[in-house]
Amino acid sequence: MTTTGRRALLTAGIAAAAATALPGCTAAEEPGPRKPGAAEVEAERVARAEAALRLRSVTASRSLLERYDAALAAHPALAPRLTPLRRSVAAHVKALGEGGTTVRPATAAPSPTATATASASARPAPSPAPVAADPRTALNELAAAERTTSDTHTAALVTAPSEYARLLASVAAAGAAHAYLLTEGARA
User: Fold this and answer.
1) Which residues are within 8 A (CB) of 92 and not within 5 positions of it... i.e. 6 or more apart?
2) Which value, to the nearest 10 degrees, does the dihedral of the CA atoms of residues 67, 73, 75, 77 take?
3) Which residues of the chain have pLDDT under 50?
4) What pTM does this model have?
5) What distance in Å separates the CA atoms of residue 35 and residue 97, rounded to the nearest whole number?
6) Secondary structure letter of residue 131 according to DSSP
7) Can you state the angle between helices 38-74 and 162-182, rounded to 10 degrees?
8) How far is 66 from 84, CA to CA, in rounded Å?
9) What CA–CA distance (Å, rounded) separates 58 from 49?
10) Which helix (H) or strand (E) holds 179?
11) Fewer CB within 10 Å: C terminus or N terminus of the chain?
């Protein structure tokens, strides 16, 4: 045999041995989806909690916006007073919903709580409360809705990430100012 023939035979033998040895190294792993690590599970939990918080905040502000729309439809004479406040609430709805986290589920099956949260968020929002026939009463009811929404945003500060908490605090403060303008501001 020539030198080239021996080298080719030796190379082919080593390649064949390696080909049979390498699959044996990976045979211990089970086929199928990999299980997420603790850090991935925690990151997913945090992302789901933030997404749920954003959804609750946007829903509260959106229902307040619907109350403004209903009050404006019932009392068009209040438009000069309500339109700037409504515009502000609409900006709050947009700001609270921006930058929402998209939760990508880990490779493992979703938890029952995540499924319950997803199904709860799929429910339609209740229609806004009927507007009082008296404009002053309608303003007072709108002010009460502003306070309730402001309280909802303030309560959410405890669990909100820092950047979102600052936004919630600002929106809650604006809601308190709106409530003042709807009631006490008219007397000044």
Assistant:
1) 61, 171, 174, 175
2) 120
3) 27, 101-122, 188
4) 0.67
5) 31
6) P
7) 20
8) 15
9) 14
10) helix 162-182
11) C
